[in-house]
Amino acid sequence: MTTSQQKETYLDALLERGYSRRDFMKFVTFITAYMGLEHSMVSQVAKALETKKRIPVIWEHFQECTGCTESFIRSDHPIVADIILDSISLDYTDTLMAAAGHNAESAKQKSMKENYGKYILIVEGAVPTKDGGVYCTIAGRTAVDILKESAAGAAAIITFGSCSAYGGVQAAYPNPTGSVPVDAIIKDKPIIKVPGCPPISEVMTGVVIHYAVFGTIPELDSIGRPKQFYGKRVHDSCYRRPYFDAGLFAESYDSEEAKKGYCLYKLGCRGPVTYNACGFMEWNNGVSFPIKSGYPCIGCSENNFWDNGPFQERLVNISGFGIEATADKIGKVVLGVAAGGAALHAIATNVLKRKEIKESIESGMENEKHLNS
Ligand code: FSX
Ligand code: SF4
Ligand code: F3S
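Above: the input record for the complex with iron/sulfur cluster. Below: its predicted structure, written as tokens.
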């Protein structure tokens, strides 16, 4: 386990762990593009990570399935995990750290004391409040108690996953343990919600890097999510979107239509009412996301999504979206009219986004040459 006493910069830390400067620049270009910043910002981000000291991180786990950590450590971009697990001083995470018991707890206390007011607190999991909070205890203390203590010295809090952001499955009806999200308990700290069940690992890295580079939290939407990652609906970046627009819907799983990539809306897809970056970031370095694997979006980055089921039924009209009307109208008007052309157009849009990021990374290599000269 690293400790916050190591006051190296992000670049120092990566070089020390065997990465090259080229790897560093690749990462900087990748994360700059994902943060939605102009390519011209690559040099500024690189400079900041070369010169700024690493931010200490305390990572708490409460009521959850640990899927968020699983998602995080399986990021296909090696530096994404390392930037948190190694390069940022990860002083405490009871799931991943090697230490256990009293050693782990005293390492956390030491780090919180030394870095009071400076560390980022990452919270995974909801917090049960019923019966004095007894339904989640660690080292003999309740989650409520631990959260209050670790939040007190935090500069900012990232709620990683829908459980800590909204309460998650534990808070679903009838919520037997009185589970609540972090912001129901902590009211005096900036809280950045990174929801999803689980969230995309690169999103949290993007938030941490944003804080490291700019010293501020990113711009948030009305329910506390960073806009650069949650500003668009899954529907807006979905590769099946041209089929929606063309009125071509799969009526059952495993049908020929579903396999051909027809829209999953009639199978219950929540993409039209769900804000998340799945469509263009995907998981495992762009390998897949639920819809690409043939299953409709269940809206896992939205508030109380577990109570918004049943998941496999077509959405009923949701006020303000008019999806039902749109789907049926489009189905009648557009069906058969250049469906292939529409499909190609929207798929090309998504492919272009990836191409843009790839080119951006390649030109990051040019920046690297420039910075080295
Ligand atoms: Fe919740 Fe994360 Fe879902 Fe699981 O820790 S958001 S149940 S993927 O693991 O908190
Ligand atoms: Fe994609 Fe779902 Fe929208 Fe269809 S309804 S285009 S499957 S997000
Ligand atoms: Fe969740 Fe929907 Fe993305 S279910 S993972 S927000 S496609």
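Notes for the reader.
The chain is about 45% helix and 10% strand.
Residues 196, 234, 274, 276, 278, 289-291, 297-301 surround FE3-S4 cluster (ligand 3) (CB under 6 Å).
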